[in-house]
Design a protein that fits this description.
By secondary structure, this protein is of the alpha/beta class. 36% of the residues lie in helices and 18% in strands.
């Protein structure tokens, strides 16, 4: 096995932060990128990784988070997780990967930890269009960050207003095609003939009113990403042509006999249940499996309770009416009790109306027009299911919901509020996540 100085010298070949850890979580070597990202001028060597990245006094797994180093030690292989790290610049989403380093006998003696900052999202709401740090949001971002560098087709699923186009743009910007075009196609409301012309283009004289040749969006997306929004609304006859396009990479413009080639990465989105549409015969099964290579579910706003304050403030800052306006804790508390069936889109509209009404700059609860139904719907913001479920499953859901709602609360306080010991809470949360004892 190479000496520690030799192995340490290899770390600077990585552009992203990288460190070597011993089995006790101690940093024994770090590259310049790690020093710049985490150090802030302070030394990092001989400190524990969890102290530097989280400010914890115990390893991540003892603080209620999954720990990639522990996972590598237990499995003997690489582990990869998304964490929210504390850096001199603020909280950051980071893709953390650990790889065991073995000696001549095969025993694990060190761990190489690679840390890739996620640029497409931010917990603080200052650098990206995607804002949040709740468990549901982080899980979505982890999937986005994993699949973005690949060429796999991605299907974004979720309710209307959850930000599917923003996620599609993040996939594009983190992909190998980021320098190419991002071409969105709204599939709703288009007739079959108009949709075909939009997607594939048409030749001059192909139909009445076609006075010139028009390039289709498929051709315009060459070298980039084609985003089909509300893909469930594509007419059945066109689904055959879309499938042929995806299988062969070729198409024909309306009125043309020439077969043309294109090259794009496909991202689709829908608020509908495509698998149910397949069962009903309203969507082709072969096309569904071609589009759903890598499905990502976008969480509803009511599943992201701890994200609401930073998200609301960020939306207000982006609004022309919201400049110089402030949200107080009472206002945020009232917003948190509303289920927001329209998700982020509805939150943005509520805030814009409130900003117009707030003459003195402070947005108060009485300015939140449209929330009059709130008192009768408070239970909708909680973890209660709409159907009858086994009691253990309901308990698991409640614990995960309570953890998300109390993200700023320390584990001991949450355990006290729930009336259990901290050890019991930690064990039950692991069970609820399907991680066992």
């Amino acid at each position: 096995m190479p000496s520690l100085p030799e192995v340490s010298g290899l770390l600077d070949t990585y552009r992203d932060p990288a460190i070597l850890l011993d089995r006790g979580y101690r940093i024994v070597a770090a590259n310049q990128a790690y020093d710049a990202f985490y150090g802030g001028g302070a030394p990092v060597l001989n400190r524990r990784c969890y102290e530097v990245s989280h400010g914890y006094q115990v390893p991540c797994d003892q603080a209620g988070e999954d720990c990639p180093l522990k996972g590598s030690l237990e499995s003997g292989g690489a582990q990869r997780l998304l964490h929210v790290h504390h850096t001199p610049a603020g909280r950051e989403h980071v893709d953390v990967e650990t790889r065991p380093v073995r000696d001549e006998t095969g025993e694990i003696v060190l761990f190489l930890e690679l840390l890739r900052p996620v640029r497409s999202a931010t917990p603080e709401g200052t650098k990206s269009a995607l804002v949040g740090s709740s468990p549901a949001f982080n899980h979505m971002i982890e999937l986005v960050h994993r699949v973005a560098p690949t060429e796999a087709a991605v299907l974004l699923e979720g309710e209307s207003g959850t930000g599917k186009e923003l996620v599609a743009k993040a996939l594009h910007e983190e992909s190998q095609r980021a320098e190419g075009p991002f071409v969105p196609v709204e599939c709703s409301g288009l007739t079959e003939s108009l949709f075909e012309s939009e997607l594939f283009g048409h030749e001059k004289g192909a139909f009445t009113g076609a006075h010139y040749r028009k390039m289709g969006l498929v051709e315009a997306a060459r070298g980039g990403t084609l985003f089909l929004d509300e893909v469930g609304d594509i007419p059945l006859p066109l689904q055959v042509k879309l499938l042929r396009l995806l299988e062969t990479g070729t198409f024909r413009a309306v009125g043309s006999v020439e077969v043309r080639q294109t090259d794009f990465r496909l991202v689709c989105a829908t608020h509908q249940d495509l698998s149910a549409m397949v069962a009903d015969g309203r969507f082709r099964e072969d096309l569904y499996y071609r589009l759903a290579t890598f499905p990502i579910r976008l969480p509803a706003l009511r599943e992201r309770g701890s994200d609401l304050p930073v998200l609301a403030r960020r939306l207000l800052e982006r609004s022309a009416q919201g400049q110089g306006k402030a949200l107080g804790e009472t206002t945020l508390e009232r917003l948190s009790r509303y289920p927001f069936p329209g998700n982020i889109r509805e939150l943005r509209n509520v805030l814009e109306r409130a900003a117009i009404l707030a003459d003195d700059g402070d947005i108060r609860p009485e300015h939140l027009m449209g929330l009059e139904r709130e008192q009768g719907r408070e239970l909708a913001t909680g973890p209660l299911p709409a159907e009858i479920l086994p009691l253990d499953e309901v308990t698991d859901r409640y614990l995960l919901w309570a953890e998300a709602r109390a993200e700023a609360m320390d584990r001991g306080e949450l355990a006290r509020r729930l009336g259990v010991s901290e050890r019991t809470l930690y064990r039950r949360l692991r069970q609820a996540r399907g991680q066992g004892d």
